[in-house]
Amino acid sequence: MEHLTEPGIRDHLLTSLEQCKQIKMTYYTYVMNLGLLILFVGGVATLLYFKKKNKMTPSEKNKKNEEDRLYIVNRIRSLQLEKVSNYKN
């Protein structure tokens, strides 16, 4: 079967197309990596921002600790009263 191009031209075109494909894949890889890096950094930055924004102040921490302490003390008192009332009955 006859070819319309010379053998050297055909090899040159195939080599050129393979090089173009390699360059294109390298470019796509860089673009994909850059996009994923930006997405990752943006996600971490957003997470850190909201963690800092929702952090309790020292006065809020003290108030919460006091509420927890009062709850525990009241719960212990109520259990002791139940225990005493059960012994009396």
Structure, described:
This protein has 89 residues and is mostly helical. The protein folds into 2 domains: 55 residues; 34 residues. The protein contains 2 helices and no strands. The model has no long low-confidence stretch (mean pLDDT 91).
Topology (SSEs and partners):
Layout: H1 7-53, H2 58-88
For the report, how would you describe the main beta sheet? none
In total, the number of strands is 0
Could you tell me the mean pLDDT?
91
Oligomer kind: single chain
Instruction: Kindly give the count of domains.
Output: 2
Derived structural class? mainly alpha
Uncertain runs are: none
Computed over alpha carbons, the radius of gyration is 36 Å
Q: What share of residues is helical? A: over 70%
Which percent band covers the strand fraction? under 5%
- The SSE order reads HH
Instruction: Determine the N-to-C terminus distance.
Output: 111 Å
Shape: rod-shaped
Number of alpha- plus pi-helical segments: 2
